[in-house]
Automatic annotation (TrEMBL):
Catalytic activity from the UniProt record: 2 oxidized [cytochrome P450] + NADPH = 2 reduced [cytochrome P450] + NADP(+) + H(+)
EC number of this enzyme: 1.6.2.4
Organism listed in the record: Rhopalosiphum padi (Bird cherry-oat aphid)
Keyword Oxidoreductase: yes
Membrane topology note: Single-pass membrane protein
Record: residues binding FMN: 89-94, 141-144, 176-185, 211
Name of the featured protein: NADPH--cytochrome P450 reductase
Amino acid sequence: MENSEGVKIESTVVTEEPLISALDIALFVVIITVAYFWYFKRDKQSSSSEKKPYTIQPSSLSSIEQTSNSSFIKKLKSTGRSLVVFYGSQTGTAEEFAGRIAKEGARYKMKGMVADPEECDMADLVEMKEIQKSLAIFCIATYGEGDPTDNAMDFYEWLQNGDADLEGLNYAVFGLGNKTYEHYNEIAIYIDQRLEELGATRVHEIGLGDDDANIEDDFVSWKEKLWESVCSHYGIEETGEESNIRQYKLVDCSEVLPERIFSGEISRLKSYENQRFPFDVKNPYLSKIAVNRELHKSGDRSCMHIEFDIDGSKMRYDTGDHVAVYPKNSSELVDKIGELLNADLDAVFSLLNTDEESSKKHPFPCPCTYRTALTYYLDITSNPRTHIMKELIEYASDPKDQEKLKLMASSTPEGKKEFHEWILRDNRNIVHILEDLPSVKPDLDHLCELLPRLQCRYYSISSSPKVYPKSIHITAVLVNYTTPTNRVNKGVATNLLAQLIPTNDELPQPTIPIYIRRSQFRLPPKSQTPIIMIGPGTGLAPFRGFIQERDYARKEGREIGEMVLYFGCRKKDEDFIYENELQEYVANGTLTKLHLAFSRDQPEKKYVTHLLEQNADELWNIIGEKSGHLYVCGDARSMAKDVQSIIVKVVMEKGQMTNSQALNYVKKMEQQKRYSADVWS
C-alpha cells in the first residue's frame, strides 16, 4: 500500500481482514454524501431557475466592479432614489448621456442612479410602481443592422418574449442612431412602443439622436423638454441648483505596490502577461503583428494590409466577421496635456465613485498613472461635448475664456452655433481647447473623470479561416487630415498600426490587443449559390475573404456558383489594392467577372454605381432569376444608398414590377439574408 505521499510501505504482519473494512465504510459514506449534495444542489438550482426565468448575470468585470446584488429596485429603495437611467451602449455615448441625466435629476429632487441592464434583473421593472414618483429612463443605441447593443441584448429579448405587467412604470426613451443606416434608431423605437404595450406610462415622447448630424444637439434639446414633462407629470419644480457635483473622488495611490497598478489592461490586472481564453471585449488577446505592408502603389495616401497572428490563442473566426483593435493615444498628445496643465503624468491615482451603491466603482481601471489613463483609457482626440464645456468654466481665470465656455455650454441658438463652429466644424479636441483657451487649467483628475473612454476600432476581416486559420487580415487606410485651424489630426488606431512593423525573428514582434466580433455578413450556406459583391476602396476587405473561401472550395473539387465583383478606386496605377490576387482569381475561374471603376483615370468620373446601372441584365439574372445573394460593403452615407436605389430600379424594370412591389422584393431579400450590407459612415 502507499501513504498519502505516494511512498510504498511494506507490511510484515499478516492478519485476516474483515469482509468490510473501515476504509470501505469511509468511502461508502463519502460517496453517499457527495451524491446527496449533488442531487439536492441540482434540484435547488433547477427550482430557482423555474421561479426566476430572467436573470442577467454581470459580464466579466474585475472583482472590484462586480456587484453581489442585481436588484436595482433594492438599491433605489435603500438609498432613497426614485430615478434610474439605463443605457444600451456600444461605444460609450449612451452611457455618458445616461450619467448626465442621472446627475441632473438632483435639480428636480429626483436622486438618480445609472444602471447597465446587463447587470440588472430587469424583471424588477414591475416593482418600480412601489417607489413614489419614480421614473425609468432608457438611453438606447441601435447597433449594426438594427441590432441591440451587447449589454442590452438580454433586456431586448426579455421584452420580446415576455408579457410582464408594467402598469405603474413611468418611463422615457432616448435613442442613439445614425440616419445613414436603414434601421435608424430601430431598437429605441421598439423599446418605447413595447413598454407602452406592457402597460407602462410614457412621461415624455421618444427622442431620436442622429450621430450623422449633431447627436449632442439632439440630446440636449430632448433633455430640456424631458424635464419640462417630468415637472408637469409629477407636479414638481426645478430647484435651480447647479449639478456640477463630482461623480468620482480622487484617491492618492502613491504607496500602492507596482504590481497592483494597471498599465493599460482593459479589465483584469496583468491580463496581457497572463492571457486566458476566451477573449472578448473585456479580455482582448495580445496579438503579434505578423505582416504590415503597403497596398497603394503610389500617391500621397496609404492603405495597409495587416495580419494579426492568432496561432495558439484558440480564437476562431468566420469569413465576414469583424476584428476589434484596441488603440492607444500618441505620446505627443499625452505629453502636451501634461505640459499645458503642469501636471506630473507619472503620479499614481485612482478615481472612486462617490456613490457607494454603484456597481461601477471606477470610470476606468484604477489605480494607474495619469500617463496610462490618458494613453490607454481616455479619448483625447474626439470633439468634447457641451457638458465638458460647462465643467471647464470654473477653471478659466480669464473672463473672456469663461464667457466663451459659458456660451458653448448653453442651449441658446447663439450657444449652439458657437459650439458647432468652434468645436465641430473646426474639429477641436481637448488638447486644442486647452491650447486655444490658455487660462483654462482644470485639475487633471477632474479632466480624467470628464473625458469619455477610448473605444476599440472595428475592421472587416479580409481573410478566410479556411485559408488562414492562424491569422486575421485587415485592410486599413491611414487616417490623416488637416483641420480648419491648420492642425493635422491623426486617426488613433491607423497611425498606431502604421508604426507596428514586424522585424526579423530574433527580435520581439510588435503586439496589439484584439478580439473577434461576430457578424451576420455571411456567404450563402451552399457554395453553388451565385453572389454579387459591391465593394469600392477598402469595402473590398470582406470580399477578399469571400473569394478566398470559394477558391478553397473549388480546389477541394466542390461546385461553386458565379462570383461577380464590383470594385472601384481613384486610379488603376495608384490605389488598385490586391490587383494581382483578383486577376489570378479571374484567371482560375473562381471570380466569374471583375467590374472595375477608376474614378479619376478619365475626364468624367466613373464609379461602381455607373457600372451597376449598365449591367442591369446581369444583376437581375443573378438576384432575380437565380435567387442569388447581393452584398454591399463601404460608405453608408452615399454609396450604399445609391446602390440600393439602383437595385430597386433594376427589380422594377427587369422584374416588371411597380415601385411598391420592387421595394417589397428588396425588403424580402434582406429578410432572407440575400441582401446584406457591411457599411460605415
